[in-house]
Design a protein that fits this description.
The chain is of the alpha/beta class. It contains ten helices and 13 strands. This is ACT domain-containing protein.
């Protein structure tokens, strides 16, 4: 079936891989822990473990055949394969899930094999992830006064459903040491840093020092705007949860604004942070209906629940190598 699938790919030309282009795109690299369904259950064989590979290159003939042959030649078995080729655009995206024997195909050799294919097809990105062998991404969480997204992430992390290592929590609001959040962080050895900000001083240099060894940052309702200098200095992805569907009610108390306006549909948006406020590529959006029967309390509760779910799903997709940049302002989410 792989050969038949490969034969339908269109033809274009290739050139040598640009290290600069690949390096730039690799900032979008993501980690994997779980996959959809039960397809990558390593219990199929005690020797086989799961891996995932994403590929982004100019659209040419033979890409699928070459990638599948690379896996099959080392005794691996593809369990799932997704391809996206935009209409009237000479670009190819793919994501493959596979199982393999690490004795027959050592992790270091796997990286070299996929890199060889990346050079052959002038790939903008070729990222492979083996969850049981590769270290988890290290992340930092930034937040202000609201705790709901932080609490959700900490509980999911504790239950093993958030495939990351949380290195620290940074906030511009102080929290008492005897609160459940502070006790949780202390119990699990996660540092908490209170960095008060002002309009004149956003404490960005201090934050950069704390997050310099992380792989990406999550703004879990951090009510401060990160400057372009901060984003350039960090140089890796920053993911934000927005309190509504973009564009949305702006300014203070957005939920109350929407409530007072009598809206019938509320939402949440998770997106990458860019220098242009709330305009970064969107990863995930969720909506829920509200009605005249909702009071402000139930309205806010529904909004916060959406934010938690939307943020968690986006991070899970990101960690499973499902999110790829598409053009300047969009994403491909497999």
């Amino acid at each position: 079936w792989l050969l038949c699938f490969a034969m339908i790919r269109r033809v274009s030309t290739t050139s040598s891989l640009s290290a600069t282009a690949l390096g730039s795109f690799m900032k979008w690299s993501f980690k994997s822990s779980h996959f959809h369904g039960e397809s990558l259950d390593s219990s199929v064989s005690p020797l086989l473990i799961p891996g995932v590979h994403v590929f982004h290159c100019p659209d040419v003939v033979g890409i699928v055949a070459k990638l599948s042959d690379c896996i099959a030649a080392k005794g691996g078995n593809i369990l799932g394969y997704d391809v996206f080729v935009p209409e009237n655009k000479n670009v190819f995206y793919s994501r493959s899930e596979f199982i393999f024997d690490p004795v027959k195909w050592p992790r270091s050799q796997m990286g070299e094999d996929f890199e060889t294919i990346a050079r052959k097809f002038n790939a903008m990105s070729s990222v492979v992830r083996v969850p049981s062998l590769d270290p988890k991404y290290k992340i930092a969480l930034l937040l202000s006064k609201q705790d709901h997204c932080l609490v959700e992430m900490l509980h999911k992390w504790q239950d093993g459903k958030l495939p990351v290592d949380i290195t620290c929590v940074i906030s511009n609001h102080e929290r008492a040491p005897n609160t459940h959040i502070m006790r949780f962080l202390q119990r699990h050895g996660i540092s908490y840093h209170y960095l008060p900000t002002t309009d004149q001083n956003k404490i960005e240099e201090e934050i950069l020092e704390l997050v310099k060894d992380t792989d990406f940052i999550v703004l879990a309702r951090y009510m401060q705007v990160l400057s372009g200098n901060f984003l350039k200095g960090y140089g890796k992805d920053v993911i934000n949860i927005h309190h509504g569907l973009l564009p949305s009610f702006k300014g203070r108390s957005p939920a109350k604004q929407a409530f007072d306006a009598g809206v019938k549909l509320i939402g949440a948006t998770t997106h990458f942070v860019t220098e242009e406020l709330d305009s970064g590529p969107i990863i995930e959006q969720m909506v829920e209906r509200v009605s005249h029967r909702d009071n402000l309390r139930s309205f806010v509760q529904k909004s916060e629940d959406l934010e938690k779910k939307c943020l968690m799903k986006a991070i899970k997709s990101y960690c499973e190598l499902r999110v790829l940049p598409y053009g300047t302002h969009k994403t491909v989410v497999f």
